Amino acid sequence: MLADKIMPNEYGQAILFYTDKADKGTTILEVLENSKQAMKQYLQSIPDDKIDYQYANGKWTVAEVIQHIISYELIMTERALVVAGIKTDSLKFTFYTQSTTVAGAKNKSKQELLEEFTNVRENTIEAFKSLTDGELKTVGTLDGNIASVRMIGLCISGHQTHHFNVLKNRYGLL
């Protein structure tokens, strides 16, 4: 498994909150692919009439949780490329808040969210596929935490799993 190959100097303890929840795989590409399949299956299992459901007043809707997963992935992929030493065109995700990560979720159907997720994940996989082994092991600082590029990839998968658990436990969506 990839997690077994990662050296202790590639991460700080705080990052383990998400990386410990990452899908299994022997490479980061396998982890991201397995995570993609899990997301597609999970999204397809959500009843269409539950996409606008929120378990309490002021909490995110299911669509907003899914949009947050998608937005987080965009942010983290860009950060992974920056840590790898690849200059991105815009650095548009340098500053963000939790509320900005759900922007645009209103009025999106489950199918639209599934398509958006699939497109974003395919771009993420292509970005990670373009990196050398050395670039994947490059270490940088992420929100004050040490993380290698491949650990950032594990965060993408683990963040998704974390929110699946929220949807299961708080929203009652299995």
From TrEMBL:
InterPro entries tied to this protein: DinB-like (IPR024775), DinB/YfiT-like (IPR034660)
Transmembrane segments: none
Domain DinB-like: 33-165
The protein's name: DinB-like domain-containing protein
Lineage, uppermost ranks: Bacteria, Pseudomonadati, Bacteroidota, Flavobacteriia, Flavobacteriales
